[in-house]
Amino acid sequence: LSIPGLTNMLFFPLSTACAFRYNGLSFVYLIYLLLIPLFSEPTKTTMQGHTGRLLKSLCFTSLSFLLLHIIFQITINSLEAGKKIEPNFNCSTWEKTLRQIGFESVKGADAGNGIRVFVPDIGMFIASLTIWLVCRKVVQKPVTEDAAQYNMQFENEEMAGREKLEPDDALIYEDLDVEGCDGEEFEETTKLKLLRRIASLASKLKELIGKIITTAGKVVVTILLGSTGMMLPSLTSAVYFFVFLGLCTWWSCCQVFDPLIFSCLCVLMAIFSAGHLIGLYLYQLQFFQEVVPPGDFYARLFGVSAIVQTNCSSTWRIIAGEENVWYHYVNPILLLVMYYTLATLIRLWLQEPVTDDEGKSDNREEDKEPACSSAPMEAKRRRSLWYASHYPTDERKLLSMTQDEYKPSDVLLVTVNGTPVDYHSIHPTLPMENGPAKADMYSTPQYKWEPSDDMSEKKEEEEEEEGEEFNEEEKENSKVHAMVSVFHFIMKQSYICALIAMMAWSITYHSWLTFVLLIWSCTLWMIRNRRKYAMISSPFMVVYGNLLLMLQYIWSIKLHKHELPEIEDFLVRKAPGELASKILFTITFWLLLRQHLTEKKALQLKEASLSEVKIGSDEENEEKGKDRVWAYELYTKDELQEREVPEEEEEDEDDEQDIMKVLGKLVMAMFIKYWIYVCGGMFFFVSFEGRIVMYKIIYMMLFLFCVVLYQVHYEWWRRILKYFWMSVVVYTMLVLIFIYTYQFESFGSLWKNMTGLDENKLEDLGLERFSVAMLFTRIFIPTSFLLVCILHLHYFHDHFLQLTDLKAVTSKQDNTIYSHAKVNGRVYLIINRLVHQDGSLPDITMMSLTAGNEKEEDKNLEEHGDKSTEESSEEGREGEDEKEKDKEKEENEEDDDSEAEETTDLKNKWHLVIDRLTVLFLKFLEYFHKMQVFVWWLLELHIIKIVSSYILWVTVKEVSLFNFVFVIAWALALPYAQLRPLASSICTVWTCVIIICKMLYQLTSINPATFSSNCTRPWENETNAKKEELKSSVLYSGPVDPAEWVGLRKSDSLLVYLRNNLLMLAILAFEVTIYRHQEYYRCRNNLTAPVTKTIFHDITRVHLDDGILNCAKYFINYFFYKFGLETCFLMSVNVIGQRMDFYAMIHAFWLIAVLYRRRRKAIAEIWPKYCCFLGCIIIFQYFLCIGIPPAPCKDYPWRNPQTSFNSNIIKWLYFPDFIVRPNPVFLVYDFMLLLCASLQRQTFEDENKAAVRIMAGDNVEICMNLDAASFSQHNPVPDFIHCRSYLDMYKVIIFSYLFWFVLTIIFITGTTRISIFCMGYLVACFYFLLFGGDLLLKPIRSILRYWDWLIAYNVFVITMKNILSIGACGYIHALINNSCWLIQAFSLACTVKGYKMPEDDSKCKLPSGEAGIIWDSICFAFLLLQRRVFMSYYFLHVVADIKASQILASR
């Protein structure tokens, strides 16, 4: 343990004795506690002076108190035993007096409180005695030279005892002589290293302590003054608080603290805080609390709080104050910490004087009486030689800084070109300590150590060391320069922090005074050159902020309303803790003012220097130059480096500027492109946070207006975008002002009188009074949105308009995104900045190798250096040293050459790695760009499908009159492509209308109960519905809200309620974005839109037979082009099978009508009518799903008792009903059929285009009268029969054996179920199995005739099953009772969910497993596929092969 640590340990027992016992004895300990930091640390001198007396007196005092306690307890117990005093003597005059002195009876006390009375004295006696003995033992030890020369008080002790230090110097000198022995070289080397480390640590420690004293001490004192002042506002604490404000304001005005004035201020504050602590401690005694009660006006005014109170029934118990809060207990602790900090700083300042006068007086004393005898002077000289021979250059500098006296041989000289200059010969009148110190304020001078005569042989070694030190200093300076530049950048942006602090202050603490800050900050935010005007107004910010702090401090004093009345909405009494956050806000004002004044001074200096250059003549400049050289003759390190290596620095600066420009442009480009999405997200955040009110709906209106205009007219949108953001900013400011001002008491009645609205309607507008937390969120969110919009308007808007201008098409080379040259240049620039200054990145292995070599070289150099220093002390070995040095130099040069070759090889390898990584990274960028282009193209192909599908899915999930517009738009736009842009625009506008209506309906002023209908349930003879069914009816299940039929309802979570509409709006905006992006991309790159909408643009009909991969690519491109018609037929059968109702029957009739045309060209002629039918039937069915409004309480006519409709029949007929509503999911299948039919219509149109036929091939059907054998040699497709590739093998399987596989499917379809319809499949299967071989050899016309009859039968079965489903689903009860044979013969069973089926009857079981058209649909798909095989040119090769086989067999 160190001596200061031992003495500081007295703080804990003393503070404990004062905190756990409040009386006169503990008050004495408090005095000791306050005296400890004022006394010097224990040394041999001080232990014989005041410090020793203080420790002795503390031991004697604590022992005396302990003995007096024992005497008092014996006396009081004996008197009580002799009944000479009354038993209940508590709070009597003599007892109260003795107790407050420190002597109290522990009668009836528990163990803890009994110990509390005696332990402070016992503990203090043991602690003080122990510390006194330890300090006395430590200081009696002899102080060695190694410890003394680094002691902070070595200067004072050396002056007092130079005679005792002389033997130590002699010992060091003997050590230097002994070091010449060869046997102890290793031990002396370790000792030198240890001494060197100790010296460096001591110098760094002293430098750190000096910085803490000069800089951090002031900061800590200022922080403690502010913390103590605001902890418990009162008249006494106001002294600390106002001093704190004064210091911070003085600092913000760029004024320097005078050390003398600041020291005097610290002394005054220490005295005042000590008195404050003493007064606060004395107030805890019962006497002073009776004189001035705790709740008294003066006690509250001066901040004197009763931490403990006394109860006469149990005087030995500590009772905490009744109204105390946590800051009442923290306040004394802060006071004590502040006092100790101030006292410690004062003591350190007194022990280390740094003024010029003291230095001069010391020099004068040295001149008048040379107290140092010859022996001490020799010791100093030896010590300096020892330092010079054993320490590196920088450590010698640090050690010279730590020495108490300077010598002419140790002076640090400032040089111009590296040669030593005797500073004192230039200016001998100035003291040595007052060297050229003014330059240190602005730059780092280049110092050189003046070599002595004894050090000439080590000049080369020192130059090498200085070169290494110079490189290390350069690295450190670059790091410091980077940190300084970052700090300067932060300081330059301090105006942003100040503006945000103004808004946060006004939002957090609501009053008319802070409302000024809100208007002030919003005004500055709206100004374009806000930084300039923020700087100009910074003095007013500081003055106004200080004024608010002072007013808040005064009103935070704990006074009653009649003592200090509150001013409503201006000054309200609040908790002291709020002062801390307000001080944090004010710090930004102080920083801004300091930055403003700093920049102003820099500008004035720059203007002054420019004026001197312009006005001053050459002669004056020369004279000034001479004066400056004569005065200091110095250049800073930066200037020397600029003169020595200007080209390298310029290159580095250019590289740094380039890399910063590149990174800055990348970040700026990202913000320009994507910041508008942040603004859009903030629109949603503002609109949907919390309860929906009118001002939030207006926010959403503004956003939706912007989206609609973007969708409908792009150029108009770009023109008004600036005015749109300006209107948003203005509106947000109005919202902030209205919400903020409505929180004042008088504004509620004012708004009611002005608008005539009641309180509920004002709340719907957004005007209501909030709590502090709610007010913060209500104002903070619009404020953040305001900042986001202002940033976009001022920084990114103009560039965004340039980026999104589709007309201003630049060349591909000028485009950053698609220019490979620019990308390559930027990548090479960024990677080159990763390398060393010599141009290569350090390899990890190389770094480890070189590090190991460097360590070995350092060890060798140290050993050689130590040997040379030892041998230099002997005069007879100088020649040998020179020879050894020459050998060492030659060896080092050879090692350097070999190392240089190794490092160059490693660097060359690393360059190859870097080049390879660069190429890979560029390839990655290229592939990533290609992937982006591919994704955009894929979205362009399929976005219309995504948009239409999602919109119809939303309309199906939420059936309402609002969504009927979407169904009409897309049901007509899909088959007619020219209507699709109009449909997108209509849907965008209508979606915005729906969103606004749904938001308006959430207002609390709209109450559905006021206009809902309550329908009366009919009697049993008035409807054909059952009683259980009526309970589920929309009319009778509850109040009927007419808005629900339109599409409006109340919702707890509005964002979830509007989720589908918002996603629909986003998809519609994304659709138009895709089209515009592709247009923009093609214009930028001089491209045209592809003829065919395919994935692989280089794959055509020619590549179909090249291989499996090209064949797969071809079908990915043109599958729907080739098989779209068959896909539509399958989708139609899917609709029939999924629905099995009246409209499925209509689809079946249309399928029969289309298939009846047989030829593709005939089908293409009727296809537009079919598409029109599909669109119209979807619109009509959705209208049926909407039905009539339920509000009039009128039921549908088929619910009359005269009709024979039941719920199953109504469902099969797809009639609207309030009990059994039509299933809107069926419309999804109809829509899928419509989508495929629309695409097929486009395919029919593309077939007539020559460019498409060249790319995809034609879809012309084969001539039905061709002879396969004669036409095979003229067949346009290659022969695949001999299987030359895997693709030919697949062709053989499909075209040769698919016919027999289809017959197998027909057989399975006929045998899986038992019904009359399955008999036809079996007959057809056996017929084709019997005559199939001969059938394949017939002409194509004959083959298709038989095959089309089979397809017709398949479609007939599907249609009949659909028609018979009315019996299976609607009249199943009657069929079970009367016609069970019919159910079994035709396998009648309802396969669609939602119908009410009877329970299982053992008399007539329903064939549910054998019903349905699943196998019929599978059979239909394979029949269509085989028909395409028959009509293919590839099939002719199969027929020709069969005929050839038969001819060969007949021979």
TrEMBL record:
<feature type="transmembrane region" description="Helical">
    <location>
        <begin position="692"/>
        <end position="711"/>
    </location>
</feature>
<feature type="transmembrane region" description="Helical">
    <location>
        <begin position="1118"/>
        <end position="1136"/>
    </location>
</feature>
<feature type="transmembrane region" description="Helical">
    <location>
        <begin position="115"/>
        <end position="135"/>
    </location>
</feature>
<feature type="transmembrane region" description="Helical">
    <location>
        <begin position="982"/>
        <end position="1001"/>
    </location>
</feature>
<dbReference type="GO" id="GO:0008381">
    <property type="term" value="F:mechanosensitive monoatomic ion channel activity"/>
</dbReference>
<feature type="domain" description="Piezo TM25-28">
    <location>
        <begin position="1268"/>
        <end position="1451"/>
    </location>
</feature>
<feature type="transmembrane region" description="Helical">
    <location>
        <begin position="666"/>
        <end position="686"/>
    </location>
</feature>
<dbReference type="Pfam" id="PF24871">
    <property type="entry name" value="Piezo_TM1-24"/>
</dbReference>
<dbReference type="InterPro" id="IPR031805">
    <property type="entry name" value="Piezo_TM25-28"/>
</dbReference>
<feature type="transmembrane region" description="Helical">
    <location>
        <begin position="723"/>
        <end position="742"/>
    </location>
</feature>
<feature type="region of interest" description="Disordered">
    <location>
        <begin position="854"/>
        <end position="903"/>
    </location>
</feature>
<feature type="transmembrane region" description="Helical">
    <location>
        <begin position="1054"/>
        <end position="1075"/>
    </location>
</feature>
<feature type="transmembrane region" description="Helical">
    <location>
        <begin position="58"/>
        <end position="76"/>
    </location>
</feature>
<keyword id="KW-1133">Transmembrane helix</keyword>
<dbReference type="GO" id="GO:0016020">
    <property type="term" value="C:membrane"/>
</dbReference>
<feature type="transmembrane region" description="Helical">
    <location>
        <begin position="1218"/>
        <end position="1239"/>
    </location>
</feature>
<feature type="transmembrane region" description="Helical">
    <location>
        <begin position="509"/>
        <end position="527"/>
    </location>
</feature>
<feature type="transmembrane region" description="Helical">
    <location>
        <begin position="329"/>
        <end position="350"/>
    </location>
</feature>
<dbReference type="InterPro" id="IPR056769">
    <property type="entry name" value="Piezo_TM1-24"/>
</dbReference>
<feature type="domain" description="Piezo TM1-24">
    <location>
        <begin position="452"/>
        <end position="802"/>
    </location>
</feature>
<feature type="transmembrane region" description="Helical">
    <location>
        <begin position="1349"/>
        <end position="1376"/>
    </location>
</feature>
<keyword id="KW-0472">Membrane</keyword>
<dbReference type="InterPro" id="IPR027272">
    <property type="entry name" value="Piezo"/>
</dbReference>
<feature type="transmembrane region" description="Helical">
    <location>
        <begin position="770"/>
        <end position="793"/>
    </location>
</feature>
<feature type="transmembrane region" description="Helical">
    <location>
        <begin position="1314"/>
        <end position="1337"/>
    </location>
</feature>
<feature type="transmembrane region" description="Helical">
    <location>
        <begin position="260"/>
        <end position="283"/>
    </location>
</feature>
<feature type="transmembrane region" description="Helical">
    <location>
        <begin position="1142"/>
        <end position="1158"/>
    </location>
</feature>
<feature type="domain" description="Piezo TM1-24">
    <location>
        <begin position="21"/>
        <end position="381"/>
    </location>
</feature>
<feature type="transmembrane region" description="Helical">
    <location>
        <begin position="1406"/>
        <end position="1425"/>
    </location>
</feature>
<feature type="transmembrane region" description="Helical">
    <location>
        <begin position="1289"/>
        <end position="1308"/>
    </location>
</feature>
<feature type="transmembrane region" description="Helical">
    <location>
        <begin position="20"/>
        <end position="38"/>
    </location>
</feature>
<keyword id="KW-0812">Transmembrane</keyword>
<feature type="transmembrane region" description="Helical">
    <location>
        <begin position="534"/>
        <end position="555"/>
    </location>
</feature>
<feature type="compositionally biased region" description="Acidic residues">
    <location>
        <begin position="460"/>
        <end position="475"/>
    </location>
</feature>
<feature type="transmembrane region" description="Helical">
    <location>
        <begin position="959"/>
        <end position="977"/>
    </location>
</feature>
<dbReference type="Pfam" id="PF15917">
    <property type="entry name" value="Piezo_TM25-28"/>
</dbReference>
<feature type="region of interest" description="Disordered">
    <location>
        <begin position="434"/>
        <end position="476"/>
    </location>
</feature>
<feature type="transmembrane region" description="Helical">
    <location>
        <begin position="232"/>
        <end position="253"/>
    </location>
</feature>
<feature type="compositionally biased region" description="Basic and acidic residues">
    <location>
        <begin position="854"/>
        <end position="890"/>
    </location>
</feature>
<protein>
    <submittedName>
        <fullName>Piezo type mechanosensitive ion channel component 2</fullName>
    </submittedName>
</protein>
<feature type="compositionally biased region" description="Acidic residues">
    <location>
        <begin position="891"/>
        <end position="903"/>
    </location>
</feature>
<feature type="transmembrane region" description="Helical">
    <location>
        <begin position="208"/>
        <end position="226"/>
    </location>
</feature>
